[in-house]
Fold this sequence. Notes:
mainly alpha, disordered N terminus, 7 helices, 65% helix
Amino acid sequence: MATTESTTPTPATQTxxxxxxxxxxxxxxxxxxxxxxDSIIRRYALYGTAAGLIPSFGLDVIAxxxxxxKMIKDLADLYDYDVDDQMIxxxxxxxxxxxxxxxxxxxxxxxxxxxxxxxxLIGGATQAALSGFMTAEIGKIYQAxxxxxxxxxxxxxxxxxxxxxxxxxxxxxxxxxxAGFRNNFGYLLSSNKK
Length: 194
């Protein structure tokens, strides 16, 4: 089991994880952990999408935080990393991003409603899509950290925000395109294999 004592990243691991300013999932090694991690991330992204359908503000944020923390714990277990003593720190980080994504949902919903004739369906669909997307992206960040042997508790809110902004700029999620399932729920269908 890896411990928190081996948290100092080497320049090689920093370069591999943060190449081009992005957090990318590790390539699949002989142990197949990247495929297993992708499966974990997709499963929890689906749960995150479902949590996004909770209509009560606050309850949805708590559900998202719990889902993301459990996903991180499962990823840490896969990579044989003990995070039990760091759960509070990771819960705070994911809680802040869950709250932030819930607040952003209001803006994204307004944008989507401006461009869609199905205005009455937009709020729940946009919230669900953003919740699942955020869960998937947070999973990718933690997967990259764990695969490179870095301490997952060192992931910051600003790192998550920068990664998500990068993904949105690359067109991975677009709140104005709610016409079809693939447009906003494609992260659940993609295998992340290149």
